Each structure stands twice: as structure tokens, then as C-alpha cells.
Amino acid sequence: MPASVKFLTVAEVATTMRVSKMTVYRLVHGGELEAVRVGRSFRVPESAVEEYLRKSYFQAG
């Protein structure tokens, strides 16, 4: 990964996605959302959040 990658905390991802922190942890542990473990916490690349949301869109109607 390039040095210009911006990492977000689980709380920041939860706020961005408007879900609970537990939902973000489930996505990380389930392999649906890429994350890096730093000590006892996780950091999620901003690009991984954007990709997850892009893949999650569906056409309603």
C-alpha cells in the first residue's frame, strides 16, 4: 500500500456508514471489509470503505 493511504478507526467508519461499531467489527471479522490490526484495534483503509459501499449499491424498484 502506498504511504498516502488514509486509515480510519472503527468509530470513524461507523459514523461514515451510519451504522454501529459492532456492525463494522462484524464486517471486518467476516472478511467483507478490509482492515489492518494495529495492536488491539483495527484500522480500515478509506478506499476499502468506499469500495464496500460501491459494491453494496443495488437498484430498487
Model description:
The chain has 61 residues and is an alpha+beta fold. The protein has one domain (7-56). The protein has 3 helices and 3 strands, in the order E-H-H-E-E-H. The chain has a 3-stranded antiparallel β-sheet. Helix 1 (10-17) packs across helix 2 (21-29).
Radius of gyration: 12 Å
Total count of strands: 3
Strand line-up of the largest beta sheet: 1-3-2
Q: Quickly count the domains.
A: 1
Which class best fits the helix and strand makeup? Answer: alpha+beta
Q: Element order, helices and strands?
A: EHHEEH
Largest sheet geometry: 3 strands, antiparallel
As a percent range, the share of helical residues equals 40-55%
Strand content: 15-25%
Dominant shape: globular
Distance between the termini: 39 Å
Poorly predicted parts: none
Count the helices. How many?
3
Average pLDDT figure: 92
